Amino acid sequence: MAYGTKVIDHFEKPRNVGSLDAKDSKVGTGIVGAPECGDVMKLQIKVNPQTQIIEDAKFKTFGCGSAIASSSLATEWITGKTVDEALEIKNTDLVEELSLPPVKIHCSVLAEDAIKAAILDYRKKNPESETLNIAVEG
Amino acid sequence: MLKKPVYLDYHATTPVDPEVVEAMIPYFTSVFGNAASRNHSFGWSAESAVETARKQIADVIGANPKEIVFTSGATESNNLALRGVAEMYKSKGNHIIVGRTEHKAVLDTAKFLETQGFQITFLPVDEFGMVELSVLENAITEQTILISIMAANNEIGTINPMEEIGKLAKEKGIIFHSDAVQAIGKIPVDVQKWNVDLLSLTAHKIYGPKGIGALYIRRKSPRVRLSPIMFGGGHERGMRSGTLNVPGIVGFGKAAELVLKNLSTEPERLYKLRSRLHAGLLAKLDETKLNGHPVKRLPNNLNVSFAYVEGEALMMAIPDIAVSSGSACTSASLEPSYVLKAIGIGEELAHSSIRFGLGRFTTEEEIDFTIEKTVEAVNRLREMSPLYEMAKEGIDLKTVQWTAH
């Protein structure tokens, strides 16, 4: 299958490959997918507890070029956003940006799930963060 | 100077040998007659060229030229063999045995026959992809009219015990068909030694043109009869109607002649290159699994799984090398290779498999380049693989609760 230039760019120069310390209370880790399905994404966020802004994001992905590109783009997009803003990212946004063909849409779904899983993990570790967030907004 | 991209997908198809092209050219323009035109020299010249090619092809498999029927390729040959036998011998029985790792042209034809009232056994293979004789023998019933087992597998290169299967089929009086497209030119093929009754061949896997193939149909002990699947002018003794593709046939014949001429040296050369590739990859990469039989395999085939790396991503990371993968992402069905599934390597490793197919124009330089680039790519992708990271941390991936999707 021929790839779009953006997929190739992210595949060849993936942004934010790596790992954050999963034990850090400011870090949320999401691992989605399964090896037998051919893709597993690990996406991690480091959140500033005061501002709820994602200050750092890292990923590691086992999967095809589109899966790697989707997770690379996801980390790029969520960095600098608040947790709530990051939750608004939809897989369709990734599909559009990367011009993913229909057979690769599941890669973008996985990336959206990875963002959500990382945020869920962060919030589990920091139950006060959601109220704090509301307080900030209020 | 290395010419890029490097082609290592010779199981998929091969370039036409310049000598073959040379032989074909006159048959497009000057010797353009219809081989079925019996009353003028244009027809006679075409017919004579076809008969020369028929002999060249028969010689490669130890057959009589009269036993060769031209088709459009091995897909048609496989269809003709299975459907032709099923139709012709249905009064004798309704059971057909096919290997589970056969090409889709056999499997899907068998599935079609299943809808027509035939009983099909999709015969399991061992962990190397080989048909086990005892399993085959147990599958045979009073109703069995046909056994179809490929000579060598197109994905993993495993070579089946053809003589033993042929002997068993003959003892039981069952017609034995084999798809031999990958075997020709890589191992000796002999329809007498193998006791094979029908053999599918194609030109484009042996440096001939696409769109031309043949079916060997045994004429003596036993004489095999087939119902045609195409109707028309009664060409090829009524078994395959349609004007003969004379340039294609001439090219097929020339390709067969070259393959036979090189049979004493080429397999050995391919074997050495393949061993070099395998050793080079193993020396620099851990957790690399060979798929298929370690010894009884085509000399030009290497199928390996690079654990923790997805096959399609790996192919994308080596854009200067043309290979193929058993990963789901490379198939239209989004299912990983059924051949790798049949040998039970697990879906995870099936997703990580790469098939290297070597051929006539493969050089040592290309192999060394492939080793270098593949090692680089596997290492890079492993560095970004969460599975590799987990494995290195000592986590048993089988104990992890994955979120299947």
Describe what you observe in this structure.
The complex is a heterodimer of chains A (138) and B (405). By secondary structure, chain A is of the alpha+beta class. Chain A is built from six helices and three strands. Chain A has helices at residues 5-12, 65-78, 83-87, 91-98, 105-125, 128-137; strands at 27-34, 39-47, 54-62. In chain A, α2 packs across α5 (105-125) and α4 packs across α5. The radius of gyration of chain A is 15 Å and the shape is globular. In chain A, 47% of the residues are buried. The model of chain A has no long low-confidence stretch (mean pLDDT 92). Chain B is built from 15 helices and 13 strands. Chain B starts with 5 loop residues before the first strand and ends in a 13-residue tail after the last helix. In chain B, α4 packs parallel to α5 (104-115) and α10 (266-284) packs parallel to α14. The model of chain B has no long low-confidence stretch (mean pLDDT 96). Chain B has helices at residues 18-24, 26-29, 41-61, 74-88, 104-115, 133-139, 162-172, 191-194, 246-262, 266-284, 311-317, 338-342, 347-351, 364-383, 386-392, and strands spanning 6-7, 68-71, 95-99, 119-123, 144-148, 175-179, 198-202, 213-217, 288-290, 301-306, 321-322, 324-325, 353-357. Chain B has two domains: 18-262, Type I PLP-dependent aspartate aminotransferase-like (Major domain) (Aspartate Aminotransferase, domain 2), CATH 3.40.640.10; 265-391, Aspartate Aminotransferase, domain 1, CATH 3.90.1150.10. The interface between A and B is medium-sized, with 33 and 29 residues.
